[in-house]
Structure formats: structure tokens, C-alpha cells
Design goal:
Layout lengths: L2 H8 L8 H23 L7 H33 L7 H33 L8
């Protein structure tokens, strides 16, 4: 059902699957985000050809992530409505990735709340970097 989104999501990393490749891709997306923020602050600003491509890649990446997230939510809702429904392999991967991401986000949130509570209980406590 959502195989296209899963496969497109896998191809969004233009630099390969290495850690350095992922870092370079993230750096490019961060640069594009910064360019868009600058453009918002200064609407008369114009992008050169490389910047235009970079911003387009960033917007396309956001669109694909939204599609993937929407598809995952739809799959989860369908499964809740019909528990006997089976996912194909790509759908299983998509749902697993989504749930793992949500779990990590909750873990980070819980950790931040714990640090805040500790700081409130002990105002002299210092945070590390």
C-alpha cells in the first residue's frame, strides 16, 4: 500500500548510507533551511543556481517525510480498525521506523523532564553540554 513512500524515503539520502554521507546530507538540509529563513527575513533576496537546487531538495525532502508520516498514520489507523489486517514487508518497516522514532522522542522528553525536576529540587545543579 505505502511501498512507494517507503522506497522513496530510502532514496532520499543522496550521499549513500555511511554515517559521513548522512551527516553531509543533514548539513545540506540545514543550509537550505537557513537560506529559507534568510529569504523570509529578506524577501528581495535571490538564490543562485546551487542554492535554488538545495532549497528545492530540502522542500522535496520535507514533502516526502510528510507523505511517509501520513502513510504510516493511515496504516496504523487501519490496523487499529481491523486488527487482522497484515502489513507487507515495506509497510512493516515503515510502521516499525515510525514507532521507534516515537519511542526515542518520548525517551528524550522523559529525560528532559527528569533533568528539569532535578534542577528544581537542586537549583545549584549544573548541566553538562
Amino acid at each position: 500500500m505505502c511501498s512507494k513512500q517507503v522506497n522513496e524515503g530510502r532514496g532520499s539520502n543522496l550521499f549513500g548510507k555511511s554515517q559521513r554521507g548522512k551527516e553531509r546530507w543533514k548539513e545540506k538540509l540545514d543550509r537550505a533551511k537557513l537560506l529559507l529563513e534568510q529569504k523570509e527575513a529578506n524577501p528581495s533576496m535571490e538564490f543562485d543556481a546551487d542554492e535554488t537546487i538545495l532549497v528545492h531538495q530540502y522542500k522535496e525532502s520535507l514533502r516526502k517525510e510528510k507523505e511517509k508520516r501520513d502513510c504510516t498514520m493511515l496504516l496504523i489507523q487501519q490496523k487499529e480498525a481491523n486488527p487482522s489486517m497484515e502489513f507487507d514487508a515495506d509497510e512493516t518497516i515503515l510502521v516499525h521506523q515510525y514507532k521507534e522514532k516515537k519511542r526515542k522522542e518520548k525517551e528524550k522528553s522523559d529525560c528532559a523532564m527528569l533533568l528539569i525536576q532535578q534542577k528544581e529540587a537542586n537549583p545549584s545543579m549544573e548541566f553538562d553540554a
